[in-house]
Amino acid sequence: MTEEVVLTLQRMLAITDTGLVFGSDAFDKARYAELRDLLAGLIEQTALLDRSEVTDLLRPVGHYATPLIDTRALVVNSADEILLVKDRHDATWALPGGFGEVGISVKENILKELKEEAGVEAKVDRLLAVFDSNKHQLQATQFFKLCFLCTALATEFEPNTEITEVAYFAIDQLPDLSTKRITRQQLEILMKRYKAGGQVYLD
């Protein structure tokens, strides 16, 4: 099954979820439910999603279907090396960050994630890019990934429930990346924006 077909199924499933939540006619809701079952059968046949992703995708949302927000921090040292954190569960590396949280601004969220994951006290300098996960790392849920340039003011890292290590890496010497969180291509785009300035990159 091609990536384009998976994207179409993802979009159709979102429409049926929204119809089930906001539809008022009982017959229309029954049709949305039947369509959702048919889509589920097609999605389960794809080789592009693993079993846990299919399960997540097929779980009714109970609200208007919309992409989630992921925030990531680009912290660069004086040698133009990128700060990455190592995930405790799969031993892959990514930019510090995580889901946007209700009641917390985007700026507060990225500073919170930097502190919790990497032990970094920082300031947010500017937005570098907004990536669409459907274009870079297709998975069950679509994310808008907001990536900010941040300056580290102090660092006091201790291993925690999520992260075992933090380290700086040159762009041409990257470790094994958690590609669902960040890809090499995305890091290259971010470094270009960091060095050149100018407009925010938008997918």
UniProtKB/TrEMBL annotation:
Domain Nudix hydrolase: from-to ranges: 66-191
Cofactor(s) needed for function: Mg(2+)
One of the Pfam families matching this protein, by short name: NUDIX
GO function terms (MF aspect): hydrolase activity
SUPFAM superfamilies reported for this sequence: Nudix
Keywords: Hydrolase
The name this protein goes by in its record: NUDIX hydrolase
Organism the protein comes from: Pseudolactococcus piscium
Taxonomic lineage of the native organism: Bacteria, Bacillati, Bacillota, Bacilli, Lactobacillales
